[in-house]
Amino acid sequence: MSNHSQFDVHVVSPSYWKVTFENAPMNLMDLDTVEQLADLVTRIEQDPDLNVVVFQSANPDYFMAHLDLLMDGKRAAAMPLGPTGLPLVSDNLVRLSKVPAVTISAINGRVRGAGSEFVLSTDIRFAGPGAILGQPEIGIGAVPGGNAMGRLAELVGRARAMEIVVGGDDFPARLAAEYGYVNRALPEGELDDFVDTFARRIAGFEKPAVSGTKELVDAATAIPVSDFAASLDAFRRTASRPESAERVRGLFARGFQQPQGIELDLGRHIAEKA
């Protein structure tokens, strides 16, 4: 693991944390992200006073771009399983969704693929006007690996979930809010203050009331852990095909995983052949 911390935790008060994600140059989710997020989730799980955690990004263009497709496969395979029995990348999503504290994503910039699955694992999502969300895995011939299908079907309904994951297009903030992909889209300059005010409100309530309420909501909307295992297996199986590798090579040739490349308009580019 790198010594550089990608998640900067600011303790606003014992009951309220702000966590800023930064993995230059474009906030890819790499293996260091996965390991550090596992440690962060453990900290959140174990803090007896924490009511609310806000996740934000230090990069105005990318909240959490997507999984790093150049990651070391051998290192990934050698990672231990998490407490749920799932590989860490999936374990993080399941555990994050179940922490006792309320989790909020304050989204500006692009959040796609595994990044989208990260924010879908938080309880509440607010978007600034520059937010863009999407699940572009179909464009590399793969099934989303973090069970975006299950999360989105519950949030936006089956037909709209199909539109998002099978179409693979970008969803700007207003459309994402209209669909229910995010809770609401805020006007220019209002996201940070709105989220901070809302988080402070939650931070001021009694911990048993907050965690107890969330526990019952979780019980009513539970997704089986086995669904996450199936999603990750499907991603690995489909992403490893020669046809998928050809699509990925074509994307890299056109500037994939470059901050000013096709990532700025990835929803359009994934539907184009090199």
Question: Can you give a write-up of this model?
Answer:
The protein is of the alpha/beta class. It has a single domain, classed as Alpha-Beta Complex (2-enoyl-CoA Hydratase, Chain A, domain 1), CATH 3.90.226.10. The chain contains 12 helices and 10 strands. The strands form 2 sheets. A 6-stranded mixed sheet has the order 1-2-3-5-7-10, with helices on both faces. Helix 1 links the parallel strand 2 and strand 3. Helix 1 runs parallel beside helix 3 and helix 5 packs across helix 6. It is globular, with a radius of gyration of 18 Å. The two termini are 35 Å apart.
Layout of strands and helices, then pairs:
Elements: E1 7-13, E2 16-21, H1 31-46, E3 52-57, E4 62-64, H2 73-78, H3 88-98, E5 102-107, E6 110-112, H4 114-120, E7 124-127, E8 132-134, H5 148-156, H6 158-167, E9 171-172, H7 173-179, E10 184-185, H8 191-203, H9 207-220, H10 225-239, H11 242-253, H12 266-269
Parallel strand pairs: 2-3, 3-5, 4-6, 5-7, 6-8, 7-10
Antiparallel strand pairs: 1-2, 8-9
Helix pairs in contact: 1-3, 5-6
